[in-house]
What we know:
The chain is mainly β.
Amino acid sequence: MKTNNRNIFLSIIAIVICSYFPFYTFSQSTFDTIYDLSYYSHNAYRIAETTDKNYIVAGNFNNFSTAPICKVDSTGELLWTKYYTFDDINDISDLVVSENGDIYIIGHCYNSGVYVRSYLMKLNSDGDSLWSKKYFYDYGTLFRNFIISYDNHLTISCDINYPAYSWTMKLISIDTTGEVLWESIVIENDTSYNYSTFGLLQLPDSSFFMSGSYHYSDYTYKPFMARVSSSGELLYTRVHELPWPEGSAIVYGICSDGRGNVMNCAEFRPTLSVNQGIWMIKTNADGDTLWTKTIANEGTAYWPFSVALCRDGGYAVAGWYSTELTPTTAEWGAFIMRTDSLANPLWARTYASDKNGCFYEIIEASDHGLAATGVASPSPGHQAFYLVKTDTAGLITSTWQPGAVADRLTVSPNPVADVCHVTLPQGCRQLTLLTLQGQTLSTFNTTGKSTLELSTNWLPAGLYLLRAETSTMRTTEKIVKYAR
C-alpha cells in the first residue's frame, strides 16, 4: 500500500510539473541548424535573444569582406540576413539588443596601410542601419565587449595597441547617439606583457567589472580583473596567481552570480604539455577569490569560450572539445556543460562532432532552454554559422531542416499508465526511450513501420524522452508515466 501511494504521489508531481512549469515540458522550442550564408567560410561569434523571442546572430567572413548578421525565429528558421561594410577588412566582436528592440553591434575594421579602427553601429529590429561611427586611439583600437549600462549608455571594453606592439586596455562610455562620455585607462602601456579583455559586466553598485588575461613573451597566460566606477574612475586591477607553477590560464568568459559576485571561466593547463581543462574562478566585487573549481577529463581537452548564469543559480559553459579516441585519431566538436552553483558538473553534451563544431557564446533563453552559437562545417574545408537551441537538459527535441517540413512524432495517451500508441515520422529507422539525463533505456528497430505500441508498465512514474531517428532528421517528445 505504501509503495502504491508513493507511485501515485510521484505521478501527481510529474503531471503538476508538466502542467505548470512549461520549461520542463513540450513548450521549449529546440533546433540544431547550420546556416551556410556564402561560399566564403564564416563564423558566428555572438548571439542575443530579441524582444520578440527570436535570435540575432553576428560574426564575420574568413576573408573579412563584410560583417554578416542574421535573425532566426524560435524554431530556427532564417528570417533575414544583412551584410555591413566599413573598410576592406570588417569584423563583428559583440552585439546587444535594447529593451525597445534596437540592435547595437561593435567590431573593428581596417584597410592596407591604416591602423585598426573600431566602430559602433545602431540597427533597427529589421537590421537596417540607423547610424554608425568609427573610433581610433593611438596605433590601433579593438572593441571587444560591451553592455547597455543601468543609465542606458553603452560601455565598451577595448584593447589599445602601442608602437611597441603591446596591447593595453581601456573602458569607454558612449551615449546612444555615439558620443563619447568618458574614457578610463585600465592598464597602462607595459611592453613586458600583452593584455586582452574578454569579459565585461556591471555590478549592483553600478561599477564595471572587466576580466581577461595577460601573457609573457613565452605565451604563458594569467587571468587578471579590473573594476571601474560608473564615472570612469579606476578602482583596482588584480592578477590571479595560478596554483600551477608552470601552468597557464586564459579567461574567455564571465558572468554575474546574481548576488554581486563574478564567475570567471577560464581554459587552463597545469603545464603546457597537458590537455586543457575548465577553471571556474568565483570572485567578489573587490576581486578577492572566493573559491575555484577545476573540471578536467583524462583524454579530453576543453576550450570554454563562454559562460552564462542560469535561473537555478548554476552555470552553462560552452566551447570546443577534443577527445583522443586512439593514439592516432581524435574526435572534436562543440560542447555544452551545465553545473550547479558551486561549478560541480551536472551534465555535458556534445554537438556537431561530425562537422568540426565549436561554440563561441551561450545564453539562457527566456523559455529556460539554452541557445549557443558558433561554427560548423557543412562540407569539408568550409565553415558556416552554427546555432543550437536546446531544452533545459541540453537535448535537441527537433531538428529543423531548411526547406523541409518536419514529420511529427506523437504519443497517445500522454500521460500514460501502461501502454501508449506511438505514431512514427516517415522513414523512421529507430525509436529510443531515454531518461531526462540522456541514459538509454530501450531501443526499437522501426524500419518500415509507421506506428508502435509501447509498453510502459515497467517504468517508474516520472518524465522520459522518446526519440525517433530518420536518415535526415531526429525528433524527440517527452512522455509522462504515471502509476495507477
